[in-house]
Structure formats: C-alpha cells, structure tokens
Write a structure and sequence with these properties.
Keywords: Hydrolase. The protein is of the alpha/beta class. The chain has one domain: Phosphoglycerate mutase-like (Rossmann fold, 3-Layer(aba) Sandwich), CATH 3.40.50.1240. Helix 6 packs across helix 7. The chain starts with a strand and ends in a 6-residue tail after the last strand.
Length: about 200
C-alpha cells in the first residue's frame, strides 16, 4: 500500500515505511495489552507472528530501510530486531511510537476496543476511563515524523508501531477528521504502508 499526502509544505523529505508489529501473544489471547509493565516485558511475538516476519523478509518488496525506529513494547521490539538483523542495521527505541493506552480496559478482552472506537467517533479528544485520546496519539506520532523531517533528507525510514496509533497517524496525515480513524481498513499484523518521498536527496 502506498500513499502520498505530504505535509503542508508540499513534499516529504524522506520515504517512510509504517509497519505494524507481527501477530503477538496479546493478539493470540485476544487481550488488550497497552501499558507498562506487561507491554514492555511480555506478550511478544507469537509463533504466527514470527512466521509472518520470515515470509515478509524473504519477499521484501519495499526500499531497503536505512534507519529503524520502533515502539519500546516487546512485540514491536522483537519485530524491529528481526528486520534490523535481516538488513544489518541498528535500531532505535522510540517510546512515542508506543501502543495507545486503553486505561481501565488493560488486560481485558479485545472485543472491548469497539466501545472505545465508538466514543472516538463522537469526540477524538475524549479520555474516558483513562483511555488515551485520539488527538494525543496523533500528536505524539506526528511529532516523530516531524522531527525526522527536520533531521534527515532522502532516507528510507522504517517506523514499527501498533495498529491503532498507525491508523490514527495515517488519518492525521491525510488531513481527515481524527474521529474517522476507524473508517480506514484495519492494518494487518506485519503489514507495511509506504509514504513516498517527494523530494530527491
């Protein structure tokens, strides 16, 4: 999947690959794992997730990344480790790419995501039940790209994050209302969305 929707000044300086982590043990168990310490130290990749990454890396169809930043959760760290090892790269922890915090729903069934998304559609600034507001997620995710745009030019940069934060980021980059983030097709585990650079190095 490839998208353009560059920033306000009219062009991306870099080429971004936005990657959702591989299938995780949280996915396997159908649980919401969005906070410390469980997210940092547990619920890493499932056997299915490791197989997904093996397949992805064996048939890599995107530009070779030159830089990898990733959420500090275990499932994203393990995903980034595999990609970094494949390309012989180092990786950088970036906590702002972390999973959206789901507050009081932590550890509960992932069927309860739907309750949060229904509230998101009403008000993207809502923080009910300790859930991180969509607007806050969009701000921290966009901050990462804005910093990379200031510091680098002409690079292919892989950002490894989570489903909800990436969908929120993509909605923000498209200039659409954040309340519509769940109207995007859900990002599959181990999927990559490409944001093409519009300027040459």
């Amino acid at each position: 999947m490839s998208n353009t929707f560059p920033p306000a000044e009219g062009a991306w300086r870099n080429h971004y690959l936005l990657m959702r982590h591989g299938h995780s043990l949280a996915n396997q168990e159908g649980r919401i794992i969005s906070a410390q310490p469980l997210g940092l130290t547990g619920f890493g990749l499932s056997p299915r997730g490791r197989a997904q990454l093996d397949t992805l890396l064996a048939d890599w169809r995107w530009a070779r990344p030159q830089r990898i930043l990733h959420s500090d959760f275990l499932r994203t760290t393990e995903t980034a480790e595999r990609v970094a090892a494949h390309f012989g790269l180092t990786r950088t922890l970036e906590p702002r790419l972390r999973e959206r915090h789901f507050g009081e729903l932590e550890g509960q069934s992932d069927t309860r995501y739907a309750e949060v998304w229904a509230l998101d559609a009403q008000d993207p600034t809502l923080c009910q039940g300790g859930v991180e507001a969509v607007a806050e997620v969009a701000a921290r995710m966009r901050e990462v790209i804005d910093e990379l745009e200031r510091r680098h030019r002409g690079e292919t940069i892989l950002l490894v994050s989570h489903g909800d934060p990436l969908q929120i980021l993509l909605t923000a980059l498209e200039g659409r209302a954040l309340s519509l983030h769940r109207e995007r097709e859900p990002l599959a585990p181990a999927s990559i969305t490409s944001l093409k650079a519009s300027l040459k190095a």
